[in-house]
Inverse folding.
């Protein structure tokens, strides 16, 4: 389905990003798997993929300038991208209302640097790149937290960051549709990743969270990966701009 396409996936060393990179490669794409520190995790995502279709790319999205440099390197190493999956994000279980002001400032600054500022720089660079190439596909991994907030108020910064980036994605979807740039927003619920398992521990354990979910189970990361691959295929162009909820009917708008 994705033969001949080159796609950059950020945060490909673990969780949703790792599963997305693996699925895109399985569908024939040349994948640029970005990682921050965990090179082995990104390599595991592309294990067995022919060398010409597997590119590992390091970039520190927690640092100003890191996103721009990483995107430029991705383009230089591939000759051009057809799609980008803007997935990398951080969640801290701190920075809540009752924390010290210094802790609030630290957590919000890092969360917004990775989840909003760097993600939006990549969005900007992708739009410029795709506009020059006559179009391209952008998938932004958001969260149901962008619509409904979070259960644990300690993660308020994460919810705010996901809402901010969702608005940026929607703006791009509308503003550059006639340039052939299609933008899709995927909003997972509780996905079976380390981030969600850590969140579950903050709520009293996995069983407590699962009991709140309509299907009684976490979303498999493979569900997100399959949907991402479909969006990147260009098989439903007029889905551009949509927010696609993947939460097992636990949150229906």
């Amino acid at each position: 389905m994705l033969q001949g396409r080159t796609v950059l996936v950020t945060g490909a060393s673990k969780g949703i990003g790792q599963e997305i990179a693996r699925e895109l490669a399985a569908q024939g794409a040349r994948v640029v798997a970005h990682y921050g520190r965990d090179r082995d995790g990104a390599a595991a995502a592309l294990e067995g993929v022919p060398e010409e279709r597997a590119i590992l790319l390091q970039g520190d999205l927690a640092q100003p300038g890191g996103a721009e440099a990483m995107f430029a390197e991705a383009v230089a190493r591939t000759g051009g991208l057809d799609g980008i999956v803007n997935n990398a994000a951080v969640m801290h279980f701190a920075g809540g209302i009752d924390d010290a002001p210094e802790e609030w400032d630290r957590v919000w600054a890092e969360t917004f640097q990775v989840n909003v500022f760097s993600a939006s720089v990549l969005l900007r660079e992708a739009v410029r790149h795709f506009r020059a190439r006559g179009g391209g596909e952008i998938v932004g991994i958001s969260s149901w937290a962008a619509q409904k907030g979070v259960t644990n108020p300690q993660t308020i910064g994460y919810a705010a960051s996901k809402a901010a980036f969702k608005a940026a994605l929607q703006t791009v979807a509308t503003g550059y549709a006639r340039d052939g740039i299609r933008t899709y927003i995927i909003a997972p619920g509780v996905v079976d990743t380390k981030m969600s398992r850590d969140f579950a521990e903050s709520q009293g354990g996995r069983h407590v969270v699962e009991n709140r979910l309509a299907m009684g189970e976490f979303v498999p990361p493979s569900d997100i990966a399959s949907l991402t691959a479909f969006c990147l295929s260009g098989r439903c162009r007029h889905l551009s701009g949509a927010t696609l909820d993947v939460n097992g009917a636990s949150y229906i708008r």
Notes: The chain has a mean pLDDT of 96. Residues 93 and 169 are 25 Å apart (CA to CA).
